[in-house]
Amino acid sequence: MLLPLLLLLHGVTRLVSSTKFDDTSLLTLPRQAFRAPFNGSAEPFTLAGKSMYFIVLDRFARSGAQAEDYTYCSKPADWTNNTGGGYCGGTIAGISSKLDYIQGMGFDCIWITPPVDSNGYMGYDAINLFKINPHFGTKEDLKQLSKSLHDRGMCLVLDIVLNHMRSLKVNGKLNLSSIVPFDKPEYYHQRGRRPDQSFEEYLLKGPPPAFDGSTDSKNLATLVKEGKASCGPTVPEQTECACLPGNTGPSCPSYNPQQQVEGWFGSLGDLNHSHPFVREQMLNWVVGLVADYDLDALRLDTAIYVDPTFVSEVQQAVGIEILGEATVSNLTYQANLMRNAKGERVLTGLLNFPPFYQVPSAFCGYILESEFANYSTQGSWKSKADMTGLAQVMKAQLDSDRYESLDLLGNFVDNHDEYGRIAHYCQSDAGRIKNALTWLMLAQGIPIVYYGTEQGLSGHQWHGPGNPGQDGLRESLWQSRFRTDTWQYLFIAALNRVRRDYKIGAGSSEVKFFSSESLIFTRASHAGKHEAWVFLNNAANSTATSTFRYCPGPLPGIDGQAWFDVISGNRMDQRLSKGCFLAPDAEPKVLVLQVDNVLIE
Ligand SMILES: *[C@@H]1O[C@H](CO)[C@@H](O)[C@H](O)[C@H]1NC(C)=O
Ligand SMILES: *[C@@H]1O[C@H](CO)[C@@H](O)[C@H](O)[C@H]1NC(C)=O
Ligand SMILES: *[C@@H]1O[C@H](CO)[C@@H](O)[C@H](O)[C@H]1NC(C)=O
Ligand SMILES: *[C@@H]1O[C@H](CO)[C@@H](O)[C@H](O)[C@H]1NC(C)=O
Ligand SMILES: *[C@@H]1O[C@H](CO)[C@@H](O)[C@H](O)[C@H]1NC(C)=O
Ligand SMILES: *[C@@H]1O[C@H](CO)[C@@H](O)[C@H](O)[C@H]1NC(C)=O
Asked: Which atom of ligand 4 is nearest to the CA of 15?
């Protein structure tokens, strides 16, 4: 997602789809319909069970003559006149040169921001779909990255945008020149354009926004105060007390599914997928990308703003999994994005926004003070953190039978768009950050770590005028010199090792207990044969001597088996009593049953 102010888009699309699928869903399609596995395994490739590292291409690693230039950079693009820019010098070859660094943390996959030729450094505003951004490198560089990853048994997830191209308004004028292949007004949505208006007038006046939930959100707040509406984590259809896309009805009456699809993000050229040329070119482009670069999966930007029938069509055509960006809080609506109310397949996977919206307040007491996506005020701290919202959303998802796959929800605790980075919103409290990262790495779904988490980047340094807003979240990484001895790097590596060693990947989960201070859940371990117990808390500034009592805990092992905390490697049986677990400190704990610290098969 790209534009600062407009993320608030919403509207609820009920995915009115006319696409006819034959009954075979993607997950049950014959094996050869999916990407051939690269590692000789008999199973088709899936993101389920993988862990992922998310990279902003321009900000991760420089290469060539600049490889040793470690000067900090966090330039903004020009969001006013839309001349783009903001490039700091990261490249595709730079990523290839740092695969040891990434694999050293134990990740299976990387997700990179769009490498296609674009106006700004983030890549979400394409100029030429069929070209690689010269700032980032060449087609050969991208093929090489893909090959290098596969040679290591790793995978590549590429970010694509179907919804829009670059801004059509450049320096205050309509500018369609050099946009490939969509260089005519007819390719773009013209919702609400008056017959006497030229396309340029329509554009300059400002096309209707894809979503604006601000009035509805205020209305909802009033209704809640009057006891006429309910919202919050206990309400699966309105897990936030704000109108996000997917919230409709009397509390969020502005719902307009058609405007969600046909409305614009500012002046970013909003493609009309009902136009046969647009549909055909887009399909060819995506299918070509997958083949040319041997991609393992895709991440789809602004997925809920694209005609859902087209999204389904793309999902069917690519033959690999797609994780869609869906900034939603309504769990029914979210689940319908995987399989809609008519039982039709839409996207295989989704970024998991509903729990993400709870994480900053759960672990660190951080709440947004203004509307979603108002980056001028990112939030403030309450005196107490509160785990209940996160636990309730997690439980509602786990208890729901609507999701096609909980293993294909991509979890995250921060990203390139919203809130602050975890180091910022947790005020560098290492204990709390470790607890939040343990939630991320062990909750059911695909854990996605945002680059720089391992170096404690705060996302709030700024070397220019004004508030860093979103651009601050995308600062360079190289000034860290890619150290592999930070506590964050080592901790993430330890958690990925736990996932791997105890086979905690895809598979079930159960919330056992939660309170404002703690959260206890289990995961299928040893590929479903055993259970791992995860104990988390949000104690502030905890010290090595702060013990923490959790109830329930597992019963002590019998027959020579014992529970070990697999993060520290320490035996914990002696700390289990009366169905509770007295943890020796407030660091997160993951208990697995073993014999003498050896796997039980
Ligand atoms: C936008 O263009 C105007 C007029 O050309 C100029 O004065 C202004 O500095 C530009 N703003 C940015 C952010 O480039
Ligand atoms: C249109 O925008 C492109 C950048 O995408 C720029 O190179 C070109 O000069 C602009 N054309 C005009 C007439 O401003
Ligand atoms: C989208 O394109 C189709 C086909 O060209 C056209 O009939 C329709 O009016 C367009 N929709 C909008 C909102 O511009
Ligand atoms: C949540 O989404 C579902 C499915 O789109 C919809 O029927 C329901 O009205 C939504 N709930 C709220 C509170 O908006
Ligand atoms: C963002 O929030 C701040 C503080 O509530 C407010 O002053 C400002 O007007 C908001 N900006 C936008 C674009 O809504
Ligand atoms: C943690 O300690 C720091 C430094 O003493 C303090 O500023 C901060 O408020 C503490 N955090 C909480 C949540 O108590």
From this structure: 5
